[in-house]
From TrEMBL:
Keywords: 2Fe-2S, Flavoprotein, FMN, Iron, Iron-sulfur, Metal-binding, Oxidoreductase. Pfam families: DmmA-like_N, Fer2. This is PDR/VanB family oxidoreductase. GO terms for molecular function: oxidoreductase activity. Its cofactor is FMN. InterPro entries: 2Fe-2S_ferredoxin-like_sf, 2Fe-2S_ferredoxin-type, 2Fe2S_fd_BS, Beta-grasp_dom_sf, DmmA-like_N, FAD-bd_FR_type, FNR_nucleotide-bd, MRET.
Length: 330
């Protein structure tokens, strides 16, 4: 997610929803249609928004809304059963059924469309198609110019393929299958080169796919502010040589020690400091905390490189410290 420079955000409000429908969208991918338990309207959202879903096993996970933002009575999310899941996707597939009641957050958008862009290039890898669907629905409804490319391992593993084929923007959509012939595979460099001047790029999907797209954009000279991304998860960041360090609370002078096998966020919570959290992987920005002194060891996927270099904020859920102490603006 492109990380705006901002203070930590507050914990979003929650609401109760019912699973009105659970459908198989592709191999290992299901969708949930969520409606308000009272049958009323749901809070409005914008294309690119996500919700936190409180799962039956106690975990909280983030899922992008994939339906048209103009819809007021439902939210639709898509979930991949991930073999490397930490329990979230497995819970959705195995523990959530039609008729289940879930607690969710109100929508938040850390991956918005740039309204002033003359053209939008939407690049999705696998389940990364979910926020792109809402973007395409909104752009098609409002007359925005866009092209959507969806890369996936095979047609059998391509979620929402029938929905895209029947959509009024089907002509703007291109599928690329890893097991297909070479001619239909996505040429990232050529796609970027042929984009109209001023195009904004949006990418979501597996880490390797996103890294390839963003690297190609930077190599082609695209301005960083035209490159928008959303990460669904972060790679493990723990290191064998992680040591302890201290966190000092600027307002009180209180010092909290972070142990080698403990995250800074865990240490803060254990010390009675209430920091809002959500993904616990450094991708959503919920726990973003200001740093007044010291040098963070940034391990997140949220802050832009220049924001990390400023060293005046960090994500305590995953990042650590290069200095013996960080002084936090808390």
């Amino acid at each position: 997610m492109s990380g705006p420079t901002q203070p930590p955000v507050s914990t979003p409000a929650t609401l109760q929803v019912k699973v009105a429908a659970k459908r198989t969208e592709a191999q290992d991918i299901c969708s949930l249609e969520l409606v308000a338990t009272d049958g009323g309207a749901l809070p409005a959202f914008t294309a690119g928004a996500h919700i936190d879903v409180h799962l039956p096993n106690g975990l909280v996970r983030q899922y992008s809304l994939s339906n048209a933002p103009s819809e007021t009575k439902r939210y639709v999310i898509g979930v991949l059963r991930d073999a490397a899941s930490r329990g979230g996707s497995t819970a959705v597939h195995d523990l959530v059924a039609e008729g289940s009641t879930l607690t969710i957050s109100t929508p938040r958008n850390l991956f918005p469309l740039e309204s002033a862009a003359p053209h939008h290039l939407l690049l999705a890898g696998g389940i990364g198609i979910t926020p792109m669907l809402a973007m395409a629905e909104h752009l098609a409804a409002t007359g925005g110019a866009f092209t959507l490319h969806h890369c996936s391992r095979s047609r059998a593993r391509t979620a929402f393929v029938d929905r895209l084929a029947a959509a009024p923007f089907a002509a703007h959509t291109h599928h690329h299958f890893d097991d297909g012939d070479a001619a239909q595979k996505l040429d990232i460099a050529a796609t970027l080169q042929s984009a109209p001047a001023g195009t904004h790029l949006y990418v979501c999907g597996p880490q390797g796919f996103m890294d390839a797209v963003l690297s190609a954009g930077r190599a082609a000279g695209w301005p960083e502010e035209h490159l928008h991304r959303e990460y669904f998860g972060a790679a493990p960041t723990a290191k064998a040589d992680d040591g302890s360090f201290e966190l000092q609370i600027a307002s009180t002078g209180k010092v909290i020690k972070v142990l080698p096998d403990q995250t800074a966020l865990e240490a803060l919570h254990a010390g009675g400091i209430d920091i809002p959290m959500s993904c616990e992987q450094g991708v959503c920005g919920t726990c973003l905390t200001r740093v007044k002194a010291g040098t963070p060891d940034h391990r997140d996927q949220y802050l832009l490189p220049e924001e990390q270099a400023a060293n005046d904020q960090f994500l305590p859920c995953c990042s650590r410290s290069k200095s013996a102490r960080l002084v936090l603006d808390l």
